[in-house]
Amino acid sequence: MIDHFFTISTNGTSLYKEKGSKFLGFSYPIQSLQHVNEKLEELRKEYHDARHHCYAYMLGAESKDFRANDDGEPNHSAGDPILGQIRSLNLTNTLVVVVRYFGGTKLGVSGLINAYKTAAEVALKNSAVIKEYITVPLHISYSYSTTNEVMKLIDQFNLHIINQEFTERCSLKASIIISQQKQVLKELKLLIDIGHDIQIL
């Protein structure tokens, strides 16, 4: 079971020059196709006088949603090299855009591939790569006298507490790494079976 993925947490930029052409690279952490479109629109407005805005993105924990766009460059000379750099770092939820200002001299397909690849590579190197875990929610209520047992379980599995309330009847919301879900629920049911007042909501 996949329980984590790698993505970037910060934007990155780059500048690559070749025979008068300038290639401006931009990398962004993204969460949705809408986010992709918003970033593309921002760059098209800011660099409206550029010849090409080529890009690639990867979305989803299993990296099944992706696209590469050449934006008028020869087929597979721009979008694919950009996507290749995202894949080479095993990243997802990542968008890379390379904006080209034409310098008057044609670079040929191999020259374009190298330019777009390099601009994407450097932009990604200038972003912070992080590991993110896939989590599911846990919501329980329990008697105050059971607090110690609940906290031991939280510490044992290093659960991230989202919200916690201490009243006559305590409640807790946390996130569980998906690969630990069965074991956490098993431990909770064991506590219930031996008489602890816990409800899984």
From TrEMBL:
InterPro entries: Impact, Impact_N, Impact_N_sf, Ribosomal_Su5_D2-typ_SF, UPF0029_Impact_CS
Family annotation (Pfam families): Impact_N
Domain Impact N-terminal: 19-124
GO CC entries: cytoplasm
GO annotation terms (biological process): regulation of translational initiation
SUPFAM superfamilies according to UniProt: Ribosomal protein S5 domain 2-like
Family from the record: Belongs to the IMPACT family.
Name of the protein this chain belongs to: FIG000605: protein co-occurring with transport systems (COG1739)
Organism: hydrothermal vent metagenome
